[in-house]
Automatic annotation (TrEMBL):
It is an enzyme of class 7 (translocase). This is ABC-type quaternary amine transporter. It comes from the Bacteria. Keywords: ATP-binding, Cell inner membrane, Cell membrane, Ion transport, Iron, Iron transport, Membrane, Nucleotide-binding, Translocase, Transport. SMART domains: AAA. Residues 8-237 form the ABC transporter domain. GO terms for cellular component: membrane. The lineage of its organism: Bacteria, Bacillati, Actinomycetota, Actinomycetes, Kitasatosporales. One of its GO terms (molecular function) is ABC-type ferric iron transporter activity.
Length: 348
């Protein structure tokens, strides 16, 4: 579907490198002003999709439409410089010999340059730094300049190619919040590609999980995290315990006892109950529904401990628990219980 309410519409998109197919029928819609994320491991086709959108790589078939204008339909392709699309690359790619202001204003008409640069420096939180050179800035500040430069010509779509990957964890989290806020404030439609699930869940309105050149699932971060369509998507979005279950009396019957399903009537026959690590509880003494288990590993993460266990109940795989209370000695015994509701995936 295309129309004025949709910023970007990708329909049945195919692309290849030579004779090797890479993208297989991609469908993606990003409403105007929304932030979307394409999430997936290396080699799944993320970069190729980004290059097709930008105009650097041809589509083999399908259609890319931006604000009602066809950019590529597998036969005719609009040149990259005429698409009105901005790009923030992973390394920022700033001109080292130019000042911050000159980097941001590069390519803008001279009559608009001063006012637009001042506006963008304010927008990205760098007022007063226009005369500095890139080497005089921190990594996070350089990425803000790269964002400002991409926003300077007022693109109709902004593409972000893993722009936070080279930053340390704390700065990466801070900067992606700032970038998301900046894009929402400017009303820019944006597509981020990443392999970092935390980045995808915290940044985007819509997340598309790309697997082997196909979109396995697309929806809101909450939907994908709590209601993945298959075990692979569940694991891409975070650590996941997939426990065999049977539908019985409207509940998911597991080795931990009956657990309420997240969606009424969702349990029928054999399936896999999705339990995130925070849904498992560890105790030193047996409690109702708890299963004895051996502690295989315990890693301190600051806010909690990541505990790996091997339950003694038949049919239960090794499980992960996020235990906030204390460390559990490796090789020791514990009891693990589960709390619902649970999302049930089909198949055993």
């Amino acid at each position: 579907m295309t129309g004025p309410s949709f910023g970007l519409t990708v329909t049945d998109l195919h692309a290849a490198h030579g004779r090797s197919p890479v993208l297989h029928g991609i469908d993606l819609t990003v409403p105007e002003g929304a932030l979307a994320c394409v999430l997936g491991p290396s080699g799944c086709g993320k970069s190729t999709l980004l290059r097709v959108l930008a105009g650097f790589h041809p589509a083999a078939a399908g259609q890319v439409v931006l604000h009602g204008r066809v950019l590529d339909d597998g036969r005719d392709r609009l040149a990259a410089e005429h698409r009105g699309i901005g790009l923030v690359p992973q390394d920022g790619a700033l001109f080292p010999h130019l000042s911050v202001a000159a980097n941001i204003g590069f390519g803008l008409p001279r009559s608009q340059r001063r006012a637009r640069v001042a506006e963008l420096l304010e927008l990205v939180g760098l007022p007063g730094l226009g005369e500095r050179r890139p080497h005089q800035l921190s990594g996070g500040q350089q990425q803000r300049v790269a964002l400002a430069r991409a926003l300077a010509p007022r693109p109709r779509l902004l593409l972000l190619d893993e722009p936070f990957a080279a930053l340390d964890a704390a700065l990466r989290a801070e900067l992606r919040r700032e970038v998301a806020a900046t894009l929402r404030q400017s009303g820019t439609t944006a597509v981020l590609v990443t392999h970092d699930q935390d980045e995808a869940l915290s940044f985007a309105d819509t997340v598309a999980v790309l697997r082997d050149g196909r979109i396995a699932q697309c929806g809101s971060p909450d939907e994908l995290y709590h209601r993945p369509v298959d075990p692979a998507v569940a694991r891409v979005l975070g650590e996941a315990n997939l426990i065999p279950c049977e539908g019985a009396g409207g509940a998911a019957r597991t080795a931990f006892g009956p657990l309420a399903p997240a969606a009424p009537g969702a349990v029928s026959g054999s399936g896999l109950a999705l339990l995130r690590p925070g849904q498992l509880r560890l105790t030193a003494e047996p409690v109702a529904g708890a299963v004895p288990a051996k502690v295989l590993g315990c890693d301190f993460r600051g806010h909690d401990h990541r505990v790996e266990l091997r339950p003694e109940a038949a049919g239960l795989p090794e499980v992960l628990v996020a235990a906030a209370d204390r460390a559990w000695p490796v090789g020791g015994e514990a009891y693990v219980a589960a709390v619902g509701p649970v999302h049930v995936l089909p198949g055993a």
